Amino acid sequence: MRQDVEDKYAQYPEHVKLVLLDVRTLIFDLADEHQLGEVEENLKWGQLSYLVKGGSPVRFGWSEHFPPQFSVFMNCKTKLLDTFRELYSDILVFKGNREIVLELEGRLPINTLKQCLLMALTYHRIKHLPLLGA
């Protein structure tokens, strides 16, 4: 882990850090399981950012202004959030055209989140498919 990324994780309260590290693990596990190649991990706009070749960046983070939740951000110039709204509006909460809002407490919708992350990580390979191949 790069030092600036490690420093960013260290800035979060412990309970937030643990959840965000779980999301990070999901990304690396998906990249490994689906042989997506090396995960580029860095900071973009002050948020944790993850990208693989052929994918669209996934960013996530937490703000003290909304302490009970964290957000996962997708590129607003993709069809990702439109697709997620179509598929998962009964499970996920969306804000604007790039943000998925998740609660820190309780159970994360892991399977749904994994599907969203995988679609983002493979976006340029699947963007031509209806509903991104879901």
Instruction: Describe the main β-sheet briefly.
Output: 6 strands, antiparallel
How much of the residues is beta strand, in percent? 15-25%
- Rg to the nearest angstrom? 14 Å
- What's the CATH first level? Alpha Beta
Spans where pLDDT lies below 50 across 5 or more residues: none
What strand order characterises the main sheet?
A: 1-2-3-4-6-5
Protein name: DUF1801 domain-containing protein
Organism: Shewanella hanedai
What features would you describe in this structure?
This protein has five helices and six strands; from the N terminus they run H-H-E-E-E-E-H-E-E-H-H. It has about 130 residues and is an alpha+beta fold. It has one domain: Aspartate Aminotransferase, domain 1, CATH 3.90.1150.200. Strands 1-2-3-4-6-5 form a six-stranded antiparallel sheet. It starts with a helix and ends in an 8-residue tail after the last helix. The relative contact order is 0.16. This is DUF1801 domain-containing protein.
Brief descriptors of the model:
single chain; 134 residues; alpha+beta; Aspartate Aminotransferase, domain 1; six-stranded antiparallel beta sheet; 6 strands; 40% helix; 22% strand
Q: What is shown here, in short?
A:
This protein is of the alpha+beta class and 134 residues long. 40% of the residues lie in helices and 22% in strands. It has one domain: Aspartate Aminotransferase, domain 1.
Outline the fold blueprint.
Elements: H1 3-11, H2 14-33, E1 40-44, E2 47-51, E3 58-62, E4 69-74, H3 80-88, E5 93-95, E6 99-103, H4 110-121, H5 123-126
Antiparallel strand pairs: 1-2, 2-3, 3-4, 4-6, 5-6
Helix pairs in contact: 2-4
Protein name: DUF1801 domain-containing protein
